[in-house]
Structures are given as C-alpha cells and as structure tokens.
Amino acid sequence: MANSLLAALSRDWLGVPVALVVAGAGVGLVAVGAAWAVALGGLAMAVGALSAAGAVRHLVLVTREERDNPPPGQLVDVGGHRMHVLAEGEAGGGPTVVWMPGGHAPGQEFRELHTMLSTRARSVLVDRLGTGWSDVGPFPRTTAVEAEELPAALEAAGERAPFVFVGHSFGGLLVANVARRRPDLVAGLVLLDPTPLEVIAFAPPDGRLAAMRRGLLLTAVRQLFGAQRGTGGRTGRGCAAASIFTELSPSGLARVGWDTVVYDGDLGDLPLVLVIPRDLIGGEAVLADARDAVEAERISRFYLRSRVRYLAASTASRLVHTPEGTGHDFPREAPEFVVGVVGDLVRELRAVSP
C-alpha cells in the first residue's frame, strides 16, 4: 500500500484530478440544498478550485524547469526507465571513475569533483532513478535494486569496465553493494565516510531520518498543488528518497539487511580506500540525548569505531583521514583532497594494469 501511494504521489499530474474530485464533491453537496451542505460544499468547491490552480502551476513549473535545464549527458534505458549518465575525460589506459553522492542526491551534487578529475581520468556521474534528470522508476526504491541499476546504466551508456566507484555516505553503501555483486566490473573502491549498517541497527534512537522522510513527503504534496517556493521540482524526487530511506531504520534494515550488508571479507582483495574524519566533528546531534558523560563517551566511541568497519570487507583496504577540522561533509569542504585521493588510486591501478 505504501509503495502504491508513493508511486501515485510521484505523478506530477495527480494534483489536477484530485482537485477536480474535491470540487466535484463540493458541487454534489451544494445540490443537497441543506444550509450545512451548501456551506460545506462551497468550501470544498473553493478548495478544489485553488488546488486545481496550484496543480496547474506545478505542471507549468516542471515543464519550464525541464525546458530550461536540458540534461548535459545522455538518457539511457534501464528496465524501461531513463537514467541520466554524464561521462567526460579520457581513461588513458586506466579505470573509469564513477561518483555517487550521499543521501539520495543526483550525480550533479558531485559535479565539482567530476570536473576536477575529468582532466586526468575518465569520470562519470549517474543520476539514480528518482533523482536529477532520471525518471522516477519503480517502487520501492532500495539499495539492492539500485546496485543492479547502476551497472546497467553504465553499460547502456557505453562505459566499459574496469571502474573505480567512489561513494559518499549513503552513496558509499550503494557502491560497496555494487562491488560485492559485480566484482568483475570493479578495479577499486573509494568510500567517503560510508554509511555503516551497524549505525542503523544499533545506534541510540534517532528521529532525524524519520523526520526527513516526513519532510520529503510533505514537500512532495506541497509541490503537487503548487504550494512550494522557488522553481518547483518533480514530486517523484522526494518520493524516491522517502522510499529508500525506509530501509535506514532498525525495522527496515531487518527486512533488507542480508541483501544490503557488505561484511568482513565480502570484497576479497579489492583495493579499497576508506576516507573518514578523524574526529566526530558535527556529531553534536547524536550526542544530544546522552544521559550523562559516560553515555556520551560510549556513543562517540560507537560512531568512531563503526566508521572503520568497511576496512574488514577487503584484505587490500587502507585508511585515509580527512584534513583537520573537516566533518562528514568533507567532499564539499575539501574537494581537492578528495580528488587527490581518487586520482592516486587511479594512478596506482593504471600502473599495474596489463
């Protein structure tokens, strides 16, 4: 039921028929003739009319956005849906780098990193289904599904292995899953403070992700009826993010954990670079509910130790710390550093390629 509702809400045109149904119900009430029915029917007709105007406004904004912002890359078919792939630069005999931002963000979030690296290597940005210029795609959105879609999009775009996948946060969880499923495609992995499933399963209760999901759905409803500020956006983006974030909860993880976890030894001897901040900078929110200093210390230790869990996934892993003073958002805070780390791995792999 939830997936059906998300799929319906992701249709940008849905607001128009909903508004017409509300207005039609109002007309029916007015026809009853009773004073209360006329009053209630008049209110429903007014709400329906305003909603219809907003829904039309939303469709105009979406059309204008798509007209003014054509995709810079190519749209390829993946399972009957279009995925956007932007590839630039020359491989030069080395692997191609594929970037994946955190959250459920479009590839464009890493455009600066992509542009910087493309002067020295082949670099690719991919919009997951439900982000950027890609179609919304089927529901539910899950990491397991997207780990199959990403290689399919690369193949459809004509990009050839070997690849170095670079993923930040939730994007790190995704590319680690790609590496586990398709080791034949992957030359190396750079994980930028990737999401460890231990944090989802065992961390102290944290309502931020649930609040984020609610916020995404509320934004989608407001967009549907033209009540958002700015230039708008497709409702499917928020619906897709809300869908995949469902697995980032203890109950959600219990359903998908085996298909989503990348555990000790799962990646064999794949070259893996884990890049993490040395300290829990910006982690005040996760410490806010600690009952005392002892629990705060335990929480801090838990988050810091869970950050290094991915090192055990490969026997050829190594740890790199981010520059002093940077936190989880270090790809934005220190882009030259990130491109340097990725470029170093590409050069190493290029030197040993046959």
Overall outline: globular
Task: Provide the domain count.
Answer: 2
Mean pLDDT score, rounded? 93
Q: Report the helical percentage.
A: 40-55%
Structural class: alpha/beta
User: Would you tell me which CATH topology of the largest domain applies?
Assistant: Rossmann fold
Beta strand count: 8
Number of helices: 14
Low-confidence stretches: none
Largest sheet: 8 strands, mixed
Q: Indicate the proportion of strand residues.
A: 5-15%
Q: Write the element-wise H/E pattern from the N-terminal end onward.
A: HHHEEEHEHEHEHHHHEHHEHH
Strand order of the largest sheet: 1-2-4-3-5-6-7-8
CATH class term of the largest domain: Alpha Beta
Q: Give the CATH H-level superfamily of the largest domain.
A: Alpha/Beta hydrolase fold, catalytic domain
